[in-house]
Design brief:
Layout (H helix, E strand, L loop, with lengths): L1 H15 L1 H6 L17 H6 L6 H10 L3 H5 L5 H26 L2 H28 L8 H10 L3 H6 L4 H34 L15 H38 L10 E9 L13 E9 L1
Antiparallel strand pairs: 1-2
Length: 291
C-alpha cells in the first residue's frame, strides 16, 4: 500500500505539471552568467551566442554534426560525415550490383549499409545531446529527447529505472497485437479474394466452410484491430516521452515523505490581531508544515 500511495501521489503531481510540457520553453544556459539562449544558429557555432539543447538538436536533424560543431567536438565532424557518406556510397554500389546480377546477398549488403548510415546519423544526434554542456544537473529537454530517440532512456536519465520494463512491456505487447492482427488480416484477405475472384482454379484455405460475407467480416475486423495496435504503440511511445519530461521537471521539487502538513486544534493565549490581550485562552487551529 505504501508503494501504491507513492505512485499515485507522484502521478497526481505529474498531472499537475503537465502544463509545463506544453507551455514552458526550456531556457538552459551553456555557462553560468551568459545571456539567455538565442535563435542565431550561426552565432552559436562561432561561440557568440548560446542555444538551448532543443535548438541544437533540431539543427542537427537538418545538418548532421551541427551539435558536434556547437559543442566544439570538431574531430567528430569528419567521423560523422565520413561514416554517413561511406555507408550511403557502399549501399548505392551494392544496389547496382544487385540490379545487375540479381544475387540476394548484394541486396542484403545494401540494406545493411543503408541501415549503418542511419545508425551513424542517429548516433551523431545522440552524441550531441549527451555532450551538450550546461550548469544544470537535470534538463527536461534532455530527458525528452532521450526518450524520443530511445524509449526508456529519459527514465534512466531521471533515475526511474523501474519504469523501463513497463515501457518495453507495453511496446512488446502492442507490437505483438500488430503482428498477430496483421497476419490474420492477410489470411482472411487472401481467402476472401480467392473465394470471390470467380476463378474455379483458386480455392481458399477454408474450402467453403465460410461464406464471403463471413470472410469479409473477419478481414475487416482484423484490419481494424491492426490499425488500433498502431495507435496503441504510438500512445505508449508518447506517454514515455511525456513521463520523462514531466518527472524531469519534478526533480527540483521535494516529494518525499518528510513533506507533510498537519492541522490540529490548539489554545490561543494571545491575540496578535487585537490591541488588548485575551482575558482567557481562545480555541483555534494550528497548521504545521514540515519541509
Amino acid at each position: 500500500m505504501f508503494a501504491i500511495r507513492n505512485i499515485v501521489r507522484n502521478w497526481l503531481l505529474a498531472i499537475a505539471f503537465l502544463v509545463c510540457f506544453f507551455t514552458q520553453t526550456q531556457a538552459q544556459l551553456t555557462q553560468p552568467g551568459v545571456n539567455p539562449p538565442g535563435k542565431n544558429y550561426w552565432k552559436g557555432l562561432k561561440g557568440e551566442d548560446s542555444l538551448s539543447i532543443s535548438r541544437v538538436w533540431a539543427a542537427s536533424l537538418l545538418v548532421p554534426s551541427y551539435s558536434q560543431a556547437y559543442n566544439r567536438d570538431y574531430w567528430k565532424i569528419p567521423v560523422v560525415w565520413g561514416g554517413i557518406a561511406g555507408c550511403v556510397f557502399g549501399g548505392y554500389a551494392s544496389n547496382i550490383k544487385w540490379m545487375d546480377t540479381g544475387e540476394s546477398h548484394y541486396r542484403t549488403q545494401r540494406n545493411l549499409l543503408y541501415a549503418g548510415a542511419a545508425l551513424v546519423y542517429w548516433a551523431s544526434l545522440m552524441d550531441g545531446v549527451v555532450s551538450y554542456k550546461t550548469n544544470k544537473e537535470v534538463i527536461p529537454a534532455r530527458a525528452t529527447i532521450y526518450s524520443a530517440m530511445l524509449p526508456g532512456l529519459g527514465q534512466v536519465y531521471n533515475g526511474h529505472y523501474w519504469k523501463i520494463p513497463i515501457i518495453y512491456g507495453g511496446l512488446v505487447f502492442t507490437s505483438y497485437l500488430y503482428s498477430y492482427n496483421s497476419s490474420q488480416y492477410q489470411r482472411f484477405r487472401d481467402a476472401y479474394n480467392a473465394l470471390t475472384d470467380n476463378n474455379p482454379n483458386t480455392t481458399d484455405e477454408f474450402n467453403g466452410r465460410m461464406s464471403s460475407s463471413q470472410l469479409k467480416s473477419y478481414r475487416d475486423n482484423f484490419r481494424r484491430q491492426r490499425d488500433y495496435a498502431v495507435v496503441y504503440t504510438g500512445l505508449v511511445y508518447l506517454l514515455n516521452i511525456i513521463d520523462a519530461n514531466v518527472f524531469a521537471h519534478l526533480s527540483d521539487f521535494d516529494v518525499s515523505d518528510d513533506l507533510t502538513m498537519k492541522i490540529s486544534p490548539t489554545l490561543l493565549y494571545e491575540n496578535i490581531y487585537a490591541s488588548r490581550p485575551l482575558q482567557a485562552p481562545a480555541v483555534g487551529m494550528r497548521l504545521n508544515i514540515t519541509f
